[in-house]
């Protein structure tokens, strides 16, 4: 054992910045139904499991040798992301004066969803639309009708990590999908004691069949690359 990092769910199933998460996962051909479905093409099993046809025509990713060692296996990336909740709250509080926008809307535009999970693409102006959006529609959208990002900014976290059918570096947003699981670590943040000196953040697990073409591609080309 090298190290241990404990994580646990927070009240309300939110991350430390206050967002509900985990709505968007690829639907895999031959797998279980997606609890929050989308309108995108299902991902072939070989996009996440070694030994099967991948998302690229007539291509399967090579695995360890002998073949049975990798068959039905995946690669896993772990990311520990510290979150400065006090700094984030200050940014949102300064938003009206600095950026001419309400703090809650700035938070939504930075991520691509309102903090309660409602996507900007479905409801760009409010997290509580007059017509209630059922949970099964929280992931049922695309960006093809919003190419310039007026509804959901092109630079939002969600859109950069999952551009869906948008034309983008790497041919298509459907060629570099990942499965992910996130879990907060550290105690619940208390705004009354913002500078408590306690580290808190997110543990991210990313399941792929190619670290290079999926996790590393997202980080270098889509997240940290230029628009």
Explain what the structure shows.
The chain is α+β, with helices and mostly antiparallel strands and 227 residues long. It is 20% helix and 10% strand. The protein contains 5 helices and 3 strands. The chain has a 3-stranded antiparallel beta sheet. Helix 2 (85-99) packs across helix 3. It starts with 66 loop residues before the first helix and ends with a helix. The relative contact order is 0.19.
Instruction: Report strand order across the widest sheet.
Output: 1-3-2
Average pLDDT level: 92
Structural class: alpha+beta
Helix and strand run: HEHHHEEH
Q: Please estimate the helix content.
A: 10-25%
Radius of gyration (CA) equals: 19 Å
What would the keywords be for this entry?
227 residues, alpha+beta, three-stranded antiparallel β-sheet, 5 helices, 20% helix
Give a quick precis of the structure:
By secondary structure, this protein is an alpha+beta fold.
In terms of topology, how is this protein built?
Blueprint: H1 67-70, E1 75-82, H2 85-99, H3 103-111, H4 157-161, E2 179-185, E3 201-208, H5 211-223
Antiparallel strand pairs: 1-3, 2-3
Helix pairs in contact: 2-3
């Amino acid at each position: 054992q090298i190290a241990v990092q404990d994580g646990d769910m927070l009240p309300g199933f939110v991350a430390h910045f206050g967002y509900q998460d985990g709505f968007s996962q690829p639907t895999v051909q031959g797998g279980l139904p997606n609890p929050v479905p989308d309108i995108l093409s299902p991902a072939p099993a070989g996009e996440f499991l070694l030994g099967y046809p991948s998302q690229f025509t007539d291509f399967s990713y090579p695995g360890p040798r002998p073949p049975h060692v990798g068959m039905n296996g995946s690669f896993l990336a772990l990311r520990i992301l510290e979150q400065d909740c006090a700094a984030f709250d200050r940014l949102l509080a300064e938003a009206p004066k600095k950026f001419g926008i309400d703090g809650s809307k700035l938070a939504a535009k930075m991520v691509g969803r309102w903090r309660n999970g409602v996507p900007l693409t479905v409801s760009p102006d409010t997290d509580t639309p007059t017509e209630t959006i059922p949970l099964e529609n929280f992931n049922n959208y695309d960006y093809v009708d919003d190419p310039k990002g007026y509804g959901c900014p092109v630079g939002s976290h969600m859109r950069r990590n999952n551009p869906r059918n948008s034309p983008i570096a790497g041919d298509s947003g459907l060629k570099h999908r990942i499965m992910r699981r996130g879990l907060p670590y550290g105690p619940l943040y208390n705004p009354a004691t913002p500078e408590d000196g306690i580290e808190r953040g997110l543990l991210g697990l990313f399941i792929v069949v190619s670290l290079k073409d999926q996790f590393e591609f997202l980080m270098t080309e889509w997240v940290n690359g230029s628009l």
